[in-house]
């Protein structure tokens, strides 16, 4: 194993060495300058090999078992459902959509705000440039990556085992998801800010906390608001899925009506959610442009 | 009074920045520290407000042993020592007055500082400081929209707002054009004379140092090679400080 590794690395080194003359430019007076070897091409090749391998595993396997014919002949089924939604659209169902839609908006607002509030102090503790040589940032980052491993749906499912069902479950799951995402985005922003101002305020005799409040908050607050708005959008869209585990909101009736194959009702639900998402998206885009 | 007693500083990477330095600076002096980059000028200045620690020796300011200061005592001491940086180190994305008010933060109620609330008196003091450096009309403009010279003036006003007895300036004019650099040095001179604040300034440019400071300390490879008035400096002394003939780069106004 060891000899194999060294053989491969030698092969690689030789390749880079021989490759050198293609990277060398000679100027008029005979001066040589060599561009450093770029690994981009090798990384591209590795990704391409992995892609082809997995394509064979998944897609070719599907065609081998069911045949290409089956795949093609199944495509129209998708349009049948869409067609049913259009033809059977049941506008009178809208009355029943309003309450769960408002629930969804409530879940998203409460969940996003609470998640954001918790995230800011943790993001500060996770920022290496603020915390100095402390190990705390590494520990927090480790736990954050564990939290991010599970999607919102899994949290909703876990909470539904513990607390039953309802909008409260949706709020809890949204808080956790929002917290994990915003904390990551914020510590990445905090770690790239200009530390000069922080050092200057610390030199006036301020504590780290005071220096952070005075010198760092003004640099990040605009982006913090913009990230909150972006997460509100994400959470609204995710609400359709949350309902599938009875975590409240519009997803519950969407799941029910799909199961009952009442595509006319599903159409109304989808359109209502779409309308809300578009309004929120445009409003937040407008606000975010003004914030950053 | 600032006193260095046999101070040495060796950085973690093995660089010996200062070798057994001793010197005294009286209150109200305007001292320029000159030398090549890497000579130890910056290290010397940063030892005064304990931005870095001594390896050996002692720094005594107004009777306080600076290397021993920690926590609250260090913060209280730093209230009296202003610092100006080469890169201004202003808070971007916020107004000039907020930048100056930031220097008041350690003195005010912690809850108020957390919420960003300042008293009328604090605001007036910030505006007074801006007025002293002649930039009052920019008070409500965002700091990052100002020119380099204006930004350094805001930094100076921020320092004045903490009512210091000593101002440390680490290459304050190195990133400014000659005309602006001259103006900033004039500001330092005026502050030194009217407010009786001790000023320690690091500079690379010999001509500006000789023009404005009352005393020059020349450093070469971590050792003091000259310490005295500006009038006594000769070409030979400059050669020992710089270890070579002066080049155009060492003089800001090249026609002289």
How would you classify the quaternary structure? Answer: heterodimer
Q: How much helix is in the residues of chain A?
A: over 70%
Strand content of chain A: under 5%
Number of helices of chain B: 9
The helix/strand order of chain B is: EEEHEEHEHHHHEHEHEEH
Largest sheet entry of chain A: 2 strands, antiparallel
Distance between the termini of chain A: 54 Å
Structural class per helix/strand content of chain B? alpha/beta
Order of helices and strands of chain A: HHEEHHHHHHHHHH
Number of helices of chain A: 12
Structural class of chain A: mainly alpha
Keywords:
heterodimer, A: 292 residues, mainly alpha, MetI-like fold, 12 helices, B: 256 residues, alpha/beta, four-stranded antiparallel beta sheet, 9 helices
Summarize the structure.
The complex is a heterodimer of chains A (292) and B (256). Chain A folds into two domains: 12-87, no CATH class; 91-291, Orthogonal Bundle (MetI-like fold), CATH 1.10.3720.
Describe the model.
The complex is a heterodimer of chains A (292) and B (256). With 292 residues, chain A is mainly alpha-helical. Helix content of chain A is 82%, strand content 2%. Chain A folds into two domains: 12-87, no CATH class; 91-291, MetI-like (MetI-like fold, Orthogonal Bundle), CATH 1.10.3720.10. Chain A has helices at 2-18, 20-23, 40-87, 94-125, 128-131, 136-149, 152-163, 167-191, 196-203, 208-242, 250-259, 263-291; strands at residues 24-26, 32-34. The longest helix of chain A is centred in the first third of the chain and has 48 residues, at 40-87. The radius of gyration of chain A is 27 Å and the shape is extended. Chain B contains nine helices and ten strands. Chain B is globular, with a radius of gyration of 18 Å. The A-B interface holds A 194, 196-197, 199-201, 203-207, 209-211, 213-215, 218-219, 222 and B 49, 51, 74-79, 81-83, 85, 87-94, 98, 102-103, 105-106, 110, 113-114, 116, 155, 158-159, 162.
């Amino acid at each position: 194993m060891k000899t194999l590794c060294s053989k491969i690395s030698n092969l690689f080194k030789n390749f880079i060495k021989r490759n050198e003359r293609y990277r060398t430019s000679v100027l008029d007076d005979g001066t040589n300058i060599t561009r450093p070897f770029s690994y981009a091409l090798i990384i591209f090749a590795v990704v391409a090999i992995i892609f082809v391998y997995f394509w064979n595993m998944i897609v070719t396997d599907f065609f081998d078992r069911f045949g290409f014919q089956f795949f093609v002949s199944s495509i129209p089924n998708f349009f049948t459902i869409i067609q049913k939604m259009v033809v059977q659209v049941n506008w009178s169902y809208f009355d029943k959509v309003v309450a769960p839609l408002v629930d969804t908006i409530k879940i998203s607002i409460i969940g996003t705000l609470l998640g954001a509030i918790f995230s800011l102090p943790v993001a500060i503790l996770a920022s290496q440039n603020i915390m100095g040589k402390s190990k705390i940032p590494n520990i927090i980052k480790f736990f954050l990556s564990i939290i991010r491993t599970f999607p919102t749906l899994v949290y909703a499912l876990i909470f539904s085992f513990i607390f039953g069902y309802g909008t409260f479950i949706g709020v809890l799951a949204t808080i956790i998801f929002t917290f994990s995402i915003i904390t990551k985005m914020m510590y990445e922003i905090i770690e790239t800010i200009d530390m000069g101002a922080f050092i200057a305020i610390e030199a006036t005799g301020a504590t780290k906390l005071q220096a952070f409040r005075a010198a760092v908050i003004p640099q990040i607050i605009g982006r913090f608001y913009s990230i909150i708005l972006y997460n509100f959008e994400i959470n609204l869209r995710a609400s359709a899925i949350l309902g599938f585990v009875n975590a409240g909101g519009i997803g519950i009736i969407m799941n029910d009506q799909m199961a009952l194959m009442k595509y006319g009702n599903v159409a109304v639900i989808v359109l209502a959610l779409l309308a809300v998402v578009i309004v929120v998206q445009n409003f937040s885009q407008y606000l975010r442009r003004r914030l950053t | 009074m600032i006193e260095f007693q046999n101070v040495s500083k060796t950085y973690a990477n093995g660089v010996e920045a200062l070798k057994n330095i001793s010197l005294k600076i009286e209150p109200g002096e305007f001292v320029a520290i000159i030398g090549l980059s890497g000579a130890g000028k910056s290290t010397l200045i940063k030892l005064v407000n304990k931005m870095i620690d001594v390896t050996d020796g002692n720094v005594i300011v107004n009777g306080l042993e600076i290397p021993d200061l920690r926590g609250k005592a260090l913060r209280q001491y730093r209230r009296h020592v202003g610092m100006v940086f080469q890169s201004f180190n202003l808070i971007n994305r916020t107004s000039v007055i907020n930048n100056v008010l930031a220097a008041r933060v350690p003195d005010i109620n912690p809850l108020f500082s957390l919420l960003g609330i300042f008293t009328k008196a604090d605001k007036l003091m910030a505006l007074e400081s801006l007025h002293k450096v002649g930039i009052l009309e920019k008070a409500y403009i965002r700091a990052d929209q100002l020119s380099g010279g204006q930004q350094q003036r805001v930094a100076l006003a921020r320092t004045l707002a903490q009512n210091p007895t000593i101002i440390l300036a680490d290459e304050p004019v190195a990133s400014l054009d000659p005309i602006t650099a001259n103006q900033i040095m004039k500001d330092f001179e005026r502050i030194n004379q009217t407010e009786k604040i001790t000023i320690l300034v690091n500079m690379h440019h010999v001509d500006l140092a000789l023009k404005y400071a009352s005393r020059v300390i020349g450093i070469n490879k971590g050792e003091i090679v000259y310490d005295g008035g500006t009038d006594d400096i000769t070409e030979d002394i400059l050669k020992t400080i710089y270890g070579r003939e002066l080049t155009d780069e060492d003089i800001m106004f090249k026609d002289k």
